[in-house]
Design goal:
Blueprint: E1 2-5, E2 18-20, H1 23-30, E3 36-38, H2 41-72, E4 77-81, E5 88-93, H3 95-106, E6 115-116, E7 121-123, E8 125-134, E9 137-147
Parallel strand pairs: 4-9
Antiparallel strand pairs: 1-2, 1-3, 5-7, 6-8, 8-9
């Protein structure tokens, strides 16, 4: 019997997968527990339409992320920080601070967990910081750490 899974089923597949199962397993286990439904022509057509819509949405999101990655190259983020002894910072510049300053200075909202700091920023200067915008789309933003007056 051909079925479409309504939830993940261990050993069978993920939600939305079309599987072939024995009649007894389908009627006595999967369907009464609402884990699967018969894969009729209407259900298969609806799944095809939903898959196409999801693919279009993912394509648009990826294009938007690539456009934002290009724009980030021209958006330096200036962060003012207090200095300690020897020209070093009190503490360090965090991804949260970079995200807040990007929002304040350029009106670009990026979540702090998308900002990748390969090493902690503890000195004044200019740094190139990677921003993961989408799977396979990584932008870089220039972060300029300046002394606060």
């Amino acid at each position: 019997m051909k079925l479409i899974l309504l939830q993940d089923v261990k050993g069978q597949g993920k939600k939305g997968d079309i599987i072939e199962a024995s009649d007894g397993y389908a009627r006595n286990f999967l369907m009464p527990r609402k884990l699967a439904a018969p894969a009729t022509a209407d259900v298969l057509n609806a799944k095809k339409i939903a898959d196409e819509a999801a693919a279009r949405r993912m394509k648009l999101e990826k294009e938007a992320a690539q456009k934002l990655a290009e724009e980030l190259k021209d958006m330096p983020v200036h962060i003012k920080a207090k200095s300690g002894a020897g020209g070093r910072l009190f503490g360090s510049v965090t991804a949260k601070e970079i995200a807040e300053e990007m929002q304040r200075q350029h009106k670009v909202e990026i979540q702090k967990n998308k900002i990748v700091l390969e090493e902690t920023i503890k000195n004044f200067g200019t740094y190139q910081v990677k921003v993961k915008l989408y799977p396979e789309v990584v932008g870089t933003v220039k972060v300029v750490v300046e002394e606060q007056n």
